[in-house]
Each structure stands twice: as C-alpha cells, then as structure tokens.
Amino acid sequence: MLSLTDTIQLSSGHSIPILGFGVYQNYTTKESVLEAFRAGYRQVDSAQAYKNEAHVGEAFRESGLQRKDVFITTKIISKFHGYDNTVKGIQDSLDKMQLGRLITSTFFLIHNPHSGTEKRLETYKALLGAKDAGKIKSVGVSNYGIHHLEEIEQAGFEKPSVNQIELHPFCQQRPIVEYCKARGIVVQAYCPVIRGQLDDPSFTELAAKYQKDPAQTLLRWSLQKGFVPLPKSANPSRIHSNVNLFDFELSPEDMEKSGLVG
After folding, report:
1. 50 belongs to the catalytic site
2. Contact 155/121 with Cβ under 8 angstroms?
3. Which pTM value belongs to this model?
4. Which of 11, 23, 66, 235 measures 20 to 30 Å from 33, CA to CA?
5. Could you tell me the mean pLDDT of each successive run of 10 residues in the chain, 262 residues long?
C-alpha cells in the first residue's frame, strides 16, 4: 500500500515525494504552503510565472522543516529562455526563495517548449550547467511532447528527470506517458482533479463506493497510474483532504471502467 511518505527515484539520483502541492493562481501562497506542510506535503510546485516563489520560500523558512526533507520545484517560462537569460533566471529564483546553501532538493523545469529548438536547448544546457555547479539538484521539463524530448536526446544531453504535463482521466496523453515511462522519465500530473469539474458520474459513483470524495478518487487514480499528482488549493480543508489517499485502493476493475481506463 502506498503512503504519503513514499518517494519515487529520479534519473538524477534524487527522489521526490509521490504527491506534490501546486501553487498556480494561489493568492495566499505563504499561508497555503504552511497549511500543506502541516497536512504532510513535502513537495511544492511553483514557477517564475506564478510570481510566488518568494512566498514559497518564506513559508518554508517559517515551517521549521529541514531543507533536506522538502522538495521545491520552480520553472522558467519561454519568454526568459536562452542560455544567458536562464543563468540569470536561476539565480533570480534562488534569491527570491532564499533557501540558503541547503539546496539538496531544488528542482528546475523548463515550463513550456514555446521558444523554439535553439532556445529550448540553450535553456536546457544552462540548467544542466547549474546542476553541475551545485546550484540546483535536478532538471526537468513541462508540457513537452515526444519530439521535444527527442531533440534533447539528439543533442547528446542527459534526459530530464521529469516531464510535468496535464493528466487526468479526460486527458490521458498516452503516447507521451508511454514514451516517458519507457525511458525512466517521471511523469508529474498537473490539473489532476480536472480543475474542479468533478460532477461526472464516473467519479461520483466511485467516490460513493469507496466513501471518498471525487477529488480523492481522481488523485488515487493518478497515484495508481504511477504519476506524481500536483493538486492545488487555497482551502485548508481541501488541502488536508487531498492527502487522505492512502487508506483505500481502486480495484483493477474500477481503474478500467467509467472513463478511468488507462
């Protein structure tokens, strides 16, 4: 049986928790991240574009948690791609988060592939350089398709540790998921509860069967698919309920029916 403290190994040699907390469009980020830490989350997913890296860092410093026990992700958006911009952007993010020299779990992703091949590869090279220099510990990508990942391989660079993409029963993206799994690239799932659109009978019926709410059912589905879901919320009760996923397991039959087929 899975547990909240379980981790998944990355190709970089580091590990991340199997459940993360997203802070996209969260306007009470510091308070929400502190609540997430109290609920047991140990992975927080931020981005330069979210404009809340400083609040994530502030929450960590107030939490009393050890840096080695918390995994913090941020991302560089396409308008800041390019080698020099990325080098500067990495330092800007680290300065905003003020995590000090204890960077054992700082994770940097390319947020999207929209800047074109040349700038994508320059950005990736800069991230790898920062990893080699000890500024960050793992490098990944987000919203990458198969051809984007292939260009990294063709350039002779090491593979990304993760690819973070939208994933839920209505957006399963099977080709890229299969590609990543075959190559040891961990798949993180954003929008795992379908932006709160939880009234589909497939979810409500399963939730009733397992005496859980639909969001918990969807998050459990994501975990059992081998993804790392990143639910987000500013509601304290929802933050806590979204970690109550480890006292039940969807049967193989339920994973394969009612739109949950994988």
Report:
1. yes
2. yes
3. 0.95
4. 11
5. 95 95 97 98 97 96 91 93 96 88 72 97 97 93 98 98 96 97 98 89 92 96 97 98 97 77 48
